[in-house]
Specification:
Blueprint (H helix, E strand, L loop, with lengths): L4 H18 L1 H10 L5 H28 L7 H13 L1 H4 L8 H15 L5
Helix pairs in contact: 1-3, 1-6, 3-4
């Protein structure tokens, strides 16, 4: 199935958030203790992060090229999206006001709004 950049970004935002929150404890430990990793592990994780960012930038550039996204700087947008989602481990509570699916839907909608998608 060939999805539009908007649909790809919506799914990415939702799936990325769910992955972060399903691994909330591990993400919290990694974020706080990353400086104590062995150099090889730190490099491996840094490379994975750069690879993810590059793929997200490519998706955002695709959306700009098709006219679906209105962005001045896809690189800044990619870092902002990554920060928005990865910070959710701090405030998410499994038994909070919204379900995981409801939060994932809301964050996905916020990401689309960030890139200028109007529905």
């Amino acid at each position: 199935m060939d999805l539009s950049p908007t649909n790809k970004l919506s799914l990415l935002g939702r799936d990325f958030l769910i992955a972060v929150l399903n691994n909330q404890r591990n993400i919290a430990i990694l974020t706080r203790e990353e400086k104590n990793l062995e150099p090889d592990e730190f490099l491996r994780l840094s490379n994975l992060r750069r690879e993810f960012d590059a793929k997200l930038v490519a998706l955002l550039c695709e959306g700009v090229a098709t006219g679906e996204f209105r962005l001045k700087d896809p690189y800044v947008a990619a870092l902002s999206i990554g920060g928005l989602v990865s910070w959710a481990y701090v405030w998410y509570r499994p038994h909070g006001r919204l379900s995981l699916d409801a939060i994932a839907d809301e964050v996905s909608a916020l990401i689309l709004s960030m890139v200028g998608v109007t529905r």
